[in-house]
Write a structure and sequence with these properties.
alpha+beta; five-stranded antiparallel beta sheet; 46% helix; flat; 5 strands
Length: 230
């Protein structure tokens, strides 16, 4: 029974099932990233152990002395081996051996194609210094009046720069896709048409991945502009 003093517009408190469901999904949001990360690392460690440990003599395996097969030992051996190989490759003897081996690979038709493709992918993913993006930028793409975030990679050189009908520098711009920024388009823009942003490359990548939902705090458009004291 209701009275004239009852507020019929007051929001109803969610039921027990609704609260449990809300708590369940909140727990999933918290647990899923942690659980998937641990599972992925554990799986990768097991896969590396399965590949590396059979190549290690029995006398060097820890389970021979402690009686327990420790997961991750193969990963540690692989990291140490990779570091040693990289250290040798930086020396004169290492570079000479690599050059001689690559010259042999270049004479093998099928192996040459496979090796060159894997080498280019490895250098793109793992190489640092000159191959990292310099700054984030804003360009008009795919037409004027529509703006897109891009990353400045290098200044165009060689035939690309020579044949382009521009009077100044030509910049290589990588325009990523959302939500997967590893795919995108390589475009060449005149330097005067590229607006360099103050935000870092990491902040710009977060903006692209989140489809515009995550802005850098210092440049959040939803916040009022800071007043400059005079």
């Amino acid at each position: 029974m209701t009275t004239p003093f009852d507020d019929e517009t007051a929001p109803r408190r969610p039921g027990l099932f609704a609260r449990l469901r809300s708590s369940f999904f909140t727990g999933i949001v918290v647990i899923a990233p942690v659980g998937l990360t641990i599972w992925l690392l554990w799986t990768v460690m097991g896969w590396i152990d399965g590949v590396v440990l059979p190549l290690v003599p029995q006398t060097f395996r820890p389970e021979q002395y402690i009686g327990i097969n420790l997961r991750g030992v193969g990963l540690i051996i692989f990291l140490l081996f990779t570091i040693i190989v990289g250290w040798i490759a930086k020396g004169i003897i290492g570079r000479s051996l690599i050059g001689f081996a690559e010259s042999l690979v270049d004479r093998m038709p099928v192996v040459r194609s496979i090796y060159s493709g894997i080498k280019q992918i490895s250098e793109t993913v793992f190489a640092q210094s000159e191959r990292s993006f310099e700054t984030a930028c804003l360009i008009q793409y795919p037409r004027r009046g529509i703006w897109a975030i891009g990353f400045v990679s290098t200044t165009a050189k060689g035939e690309i720069s020579g044949r382009a009908e521009t009077g100044g520098k030509l910049l290589s711009i990588f325009v990523p896709t959302t939500p997967n920024p590893t795919s995108g388009f390589l475009l060449f823009f005149p330097e005067e048409d590229v607006i360099i942003l103050d935000m870092s490359v990491e902040d710009a990548a977060k903006l692209v991945i989140s489809a515009g939902l995550v802005y850098p705090n210092a440049k959040d458009p939803t916040q009022p502009p800071e007043l400059v004291e005079t």
